[in-house]
Amino acid sequence: MDAPTTTSADNGTSGGGGGWFTPRNTPATTGSTDTGVPDQERDSPHAIPTPAPTAAPSAPAPAASEAATAPSAEPRVPPQRHASTSSSSEPAGSAPAEEASPDAVLIRRAMAEITPVADKVTSYFYALLFVRYPDLRSLFPAAMDTQRDRLLRALLTAAEHIDNTDVLVHYLQNLGRGHRKYGTRPEHYPAVGECLIGALSKYAAGVWNEEMEAAWIRAYTTISQVMIDAAAADELRAPPWWYAEVVTHDLRTPDVAVITVRPDQPYPFLAGQYTSVETPWWPRIWRHYSFASAPRSDGLLSFHVKAVPAGWVSNALVHRARPGDIIRLGPPAGSMTVDHTTDSGLLCVGGGTGIAPIKAMVEDVAEHGERRSVEVFYGARTDHDLYDIDTMLRLQQSHPWLSVRAIIDEQAHQQLPDAVRAFGPWNEYDAYLSGPPGMIRSGVDVLRSIGVPSERIRHDSVEELVAAWS
Ligand SMILES: Cc1cc2nc3c(=O)[nH]c(=O)nc-3n(C[C@H](O)[C@H](O)[C@H](O)COP(=O)(O)OP(=O)(O)OC[C@H]3O[C@@H](n4cnc5c(N)ncnc54)[C@H](O)[C@@H]3O)c2cc1C
Ligand code: HEM
Question: Which residues of the chain have pLDDT under 70?
Fold first, then answer.
């Protein structure tokens, strides 16, 4: 692969002071203010050149189905080793030291220092960013709430796995495309990089040195360039977001709504994928929701949303949204899609609203006219929570290859994954899991324990990158 191609990486990416964002020494601990940011840290750093997209993509706009998955510009990642940890069977950080590149070793050393104080690192990072670059504050939600650590967590995880280029590049391209909806621009990346180094050097002070700083700068340069290039390529073929009008709102239980929306322009996606949604009531707060139907000829999209206690977006969608309201949608994402190049059976496990993408995938198989076995396990706490069982049973009646089993915790006295195990063997099936994170984790454990290879188990989560190594 090519050498790092961040435009300004040519300026030198070492920690010697010549990087494309100015590396800083450990901030002094005196003179701090209520933000926790020392006064001297408030000063803008030296002039920071702005990275530019490296590849001017010239490919014509792809067909709808390609647009949802096609990689963008050729990724440029330094020729680092492909560690064997790219398989999903090895936990993060468990790669034998001799397989990691020197930069990865340095990065992991810093990670070991900061992991126990991750909350403080996050607070300090945002304080630095908003004090030094107040203009960037308006890109972020007014309330930096429970999910505010996602940016930093993703950055650190990406840096930690800088050797695993295949998984990393795919993830970062998606992330870069998704960042267009926040209004992120190439010139914002140096600011974030600089504040990352500021926060790391403070909280990993015990091990921090020039060599380590240089390793982080190289990793950040690589990460941001992949995101910038993917965003630039995406600009040529898709808007940064879509407006969509709510056309129907069906409250199926006191806390689950099925919502159908009409996007303002064609929205290409694949069954099994998800998007991000922003409501008019909580600007700049985006949450993920899975498409509950395969792409339809009328272009409408539907979602199943469960209001969680004190949840910002889910409560707005379930209890406030009405036909005529306009929401915003980000680009499609997620790899929990049907592989139509094989005819293996599909084992689909959906808990709660996790049934939504599974219903979409069943419709997708039906539309492709395939006769492959699809076994759906639909889990819920009580039978009242099986809000979409009628639809699933109707699908079962129409398609002899489909079997739907409802598993109710209360009656079965067993968790959904255990019920799945009881109906095995599943080692000839491609497995898809969708639902609460706990269900996905135990589902993956159960499936692996009964011999389903990891590469045949698919699921999505916000922590897609973390999940790839879990
Ligand atoms: C890939 C993906 C697809 C998703 N698809 C769907 C979908 O199709 N339908 C759907 O309803 N949701 C889906 N989600 C979950 C959704 O993105 C939000 O996390 C959820 O709606 C809560 O958002 P919120 O803004 O209402 O709550 P937040 O404001 O983020 O959270 C408020 C409080 O609720 C807690 N909380 C968050 N989620 C839950 C939960 N599930 N149960 C109990 N407490 C919780 C938080 O820890 C916090 O304390 C999906 C998530 C991912 C990652
Ligand atoms: C290499 C660098 C970066 C990484 C790895 C990264 C990663 C992330 C991740 C994982 C999220 C969570 C939501 C999502 O998945 O979209 C996020 C949110 C966000 N990022 Fe980034 N990001 C980076 C750079 C930037 C830059 C340069 C900006 C612009 C200032 C930015 C602005 C935002 C905003 C506004 C949000 C939404 C915040 C929220 O929902 O609380 N990011 N980022």
Answer: 1-52, 54-98, 145-147, 410-414, 461-470
Residues 6 or more apart in contact with residue 223 via CB below 8 angstroms: 155, 158, 159, 162, 168, 172
- Nearest residue (by CA) to ligand 1, atom 28, is 311
Cβ–ligand 2 distance for 123 under 6 Å, the answer no
Report field, pTM of the whole predicted structure over 0.85: no
Q: Which atom of ligand 1 is nearest to the CA of 462?
A: 53
Pick the CATH number of 7-235 from 3.90.79.10, 1.20.1260.10, 1.10.490.10, 3.40.50.620: 1.10.490.10
Is the CB of residue 175 below 6 angstroms from any atom belonging to ligand 2? yes
Give 246-282 as a DSSP string. Answer: EEEEEEEETTEEEEEEEESS-----TT-EEEEE-TTS
Ligand 2 centre distance from Cα of residue 158 (Å): 13
In tens, the pLDDT along 399-451 reads 999 999 999 886 655 678 788 888 988 988 999 999 988 888 888 988 999 88
**Rounded distance from Cα 303 to ligand 1 centre (Å):** 13
Ligand 2 atom 15 nearest Cα: 175
Residue with the two structure tokens 């910002």: 312
Residue extents of the structural domains in the chain: 7-235, 242-329, 345-468
